[in-house]
Amino acid sequence: MIAGLLIIVGATACLSASAFADDPIETAALPHLVVGTKHSPPFAFRNPDGQWTGISIELWRHLGDEINVEYEFRELPLEEMLAGIETGELDVAVAAISVTADRLQRVEFCHPHFTTGLGIAVRARDPATNWSMVRRIVSTRLLRIAGVILGIVAVCGLLFWIAERKRNEGTFGGGRRQGVGMGLWWSMILLLGHKGVFPVSTFGRVVAACSMVASILLLSLLTGVITSVLTVQQLDTGIEHPSDLRHVRTVTVESSTSADYLRRRRIGFRAVPKAEEALQAVAESRADAAVYDEALLRYLANTEFVESIHVLPVSFNTQEYAIALQSDSTLRKPLNEALLRFRASDSWDELIYRYLGE
Asked: Which SUPFAM superfamilies match (predicted)?
């Protein structure tokens, strides 16, 4: 009986082991996410191999590996990306997506990973020649200052002659023409800092003192005018502040933060689908200024429009880029934790330097 029971138990164990061996072991599949993106270099763009790359794309690849998910990229315009997040067709949106109050009512955002602002791009000026530089320096303002200097020289020279003709006959005596000419010459060399002739009369000394003070002020003003012309000759576009955009032909990218900004400020503009088209319009003089995200403008100006586009040293309307998620997404917390760890590492600094050089 015992032997029979042992045989039965052994056979049952063998059959059970065989049954378990025949059944495959089930493993939990990795979550598969649909990630929306759009062409917005240097944050998201395709390399020559057709693969997506850029600051935001490489950031997402790192975060995706960190939280252990599978994903696929789907290229869509910005508005369709946000709509896809709302409807659930997309799980994540990654590009140069600004965090705004209106968008926060539609989607959620991770912690911002990049801070920038709007910039203004204009057509680069041709290299200045010697003649063009002379024409820029000899301006109406400069001619007015020169006229004032000559007037002061003439008045002081006449006053010197009147004050010194009887007290200093050796220098200012003689005929009227000779005396006035000597007074003008003395006034001129005094204006330039030379003090070879000293006035004898009290009134002459007062005039000399006033002339020296005036010469210091006028020469300083003249030097400042010339220096300012030479300094801003490449930046003289007539645009020094965003409000100046009301007087020029402005172009921007449709459905963008820059378009919303111009619309709120009631600044007329023309919208195009891509930033490259906006800069091309400026380079071909079909527009005077392009307004868009400053980091993107500088990247394009340094890569595709090196000789034709210049980005002005003007930044306004600070904005932050972040990853967009569905409302109440369970991905938000693990993504934020992984993002904060990556932002604190040297790898993030290296990533920014590789694309922006800063």
From this structure: Periplasmic binding protein-like II, Voltage-gated potassium channels
